[in-house]
Amino acid sequence: MGESASGSASGSALALARPANLPAPSASLAPSSLGIVPPLAVLGIFFFYPFVLILGQSFFSSHGTLSLAQYAEVLGTGLFRNALFHTITITLSATAGCLALGLSLSIVIAFVPFPGARIVSRMIDTFIALPTFLVALAFTFIYGTAGLLNGAAMSAFSLSLPPIDFLYSQWGVILAEVTVYTPFVMRPLLASFSLIDQAEIEIASSLGARPFRILRQVIVPAALPALMAGGSLCLLLTTNEFGIVLFIGAKGVQTLPLLIYDKAIQEFDYSSACVLAAINIALSLGFYALYRSTLAWLGKRGAGLV
């Protein structure tokens, strides 16, 4: 009894002493709540403030009144419809090409042993660091009118005109963007494939599963999150790509970023440029939301089928 009483007394004393020794909740929360102020201030100054200025310039007239006349004027032009069509077509085609090529190359590098696979994997990181216009410039030297292939073909077959002329079209822009942005899909895919247990593939193969079934039921479900990350990044980058389109100089191919540049820099029409910028931002966010929801639906459907 004495021991239990003393134990309970000491326990109650410890319970009473513990809150006095612990820091007050408000004191522990105060530094963390104040710590978010500098990041919010940086975002507000360098991102939200210019964004609000762009939206204000697009929605308000020169007299400071709220008006949608500028949107009606820009949306009614054929130049805008042509730029919107090319932007959507190039974005969807280039992203689909990046996903298909990136998934294929990643599977070969990760699961098909060949000499130099590790070196190729390391080179992907280096290729990501290259500027986009460098690939467009290289394509001009190779596939351009006075490029290496056209020069060799005209010299070999005595041709008066260059036989290869796809570069200065929409398909040339798509090919250049696929070349530039495929590593952005491969990098997360290779990281995801490195986490797959090889025993799963060996067990599935020993049970009689063919390579295509292993690919469909083991590898592709594990690659969906990486495809979502890489594909969404490619979708946003290709929507807002400017350097490749400018350097290739495709005839009749004008995208929204290029049209914004023309309105703001060459024509000094800042109101129309702000309207186009707001539409471009809305298009990027719409593509991103659509892509994420579609891949999430495919992931749930694939998990249900497996």
H and E string:
HHHHHHHHHHHHHH
Find the structural class using helix and strand composition: mainly alpha
Tertiary shape? globular
Unreliable runs: 1-20, 25-31
* Mean pLDDT level: 80
CATH architecture descriptor of the largest domain:
Orthogonal Bundle
Secondary-structure topology with pairs:
Blueprint: H1 2-21, H2 25-35, H3 37-59, H4 69-75, H5 78-111, H6 117-128, H7 132-143, H8 148-157, H9 170-193, H10 198-206, H11 211-239, H12 243-248, H13 256-266, H14 270-305
Helix pairs in contact: 3-14, 5-9, 5-11, 6-9, 7-9, 9-11, 11-14, 13-14
Would you write up a description of this structure?
Helices cover 80% and strands 0% of the residues. The protein has 306 residues and is an all-alpha fold. The chain has two domains: 36 residues, no CATH class; 238 residues, MetI-like fold, CATH 1.10.3720.10. Helix 5 runs parallel beside helix 9, helix 5 packs antiparallel against helix 11 and helix 9 packs across helix 11. The longest helix is centred in the last third of the chain and has 36 residues.
